[in-house]
Amino acid sequence: MVRVLAVADEVVDSLTFGVGIEGRPDLILGAGDLPFDYLEILSSLCDAPCVYVPGNHDRELRGYHRGRTGWTRAGLPTEDPGPRGGINADGRTVTVAGLRISGLGGSRCYNGGTNQYTDTQQRLRSMRLRCGNVLSRSRGAGHGGSTRGATDILLTHSPARGVGDGDDTPHRGFDCFHPLVRSLRPTLLVHGHVHPYGSRPRDLPIGEATTSMNVVGFCQFDIDPATRKVEIVRRRHGA
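== Metallophosphoesterase ==
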C-alpha cells in the first residue's frame, strides 16, 4: 500500500505542523490552487516527493524547461517555477512512489486568466496526454520498466463534467475527462477546484472502475496499485 496525502485549493495550517497527518505519507499530491511554499513544507515535513498540477489561480508554468544545467525559459537561465523539488505532471504521465500518475491541470476558460482552457483546448491536451501515456509504456517495456497499462491516479484540478462539478461556468467540469478515464483506466481521479463550503461531497463513480475524489482541504488515503484497493485514512473538506 502507498500512503498518499492529497491537497487542493485551501491551506490547512495544522498540516504544516504535522497535525492531522496519520503515519508517514509516501507521496504528496497537489491538485492546484495552493501556495507553492505550502507544498514544499508538506513535502519536506513528510520527506515525501510531491507531484502536482497547476490550478487556475496558480502562476503560468508553461515555457519552462529543465536541462542538465538547470531551468531555462526562452533560452535564458531561471529559477524552478514551481514548488522546489516538485514534479509537474501537467500533460504527462510520471511514475513516483510506485504509482503511475497522469496529470491535467487548469480549469474551464471564464475570464482569460492563466491555466484556463476552452473545451477544444483541453480536449487536445487530453489527447496528447493519452498519446504520451502510450509512449511512456512503450519506453518502459523496452527498458525493463512496467508494461501495466492502467494509470493509478489521474490528477486534475477540475472535475469531469457531471461528476462533482458546478453549474456555474468557472466550476463546470470537462467532458473530455470521460474518454480520458476510459483510456487511462485510473483507480482514482483526484481533483480540487469545487469548494464544498461546509458540505461533504461524495466520492463518485466515473467510468467502469474509477472513483472521482474531491480533495479540497485534504484527503489522506492508502492505495494498492496491484489490487486497486483504496482506503481513506483521514480527510477534511474546506470550510
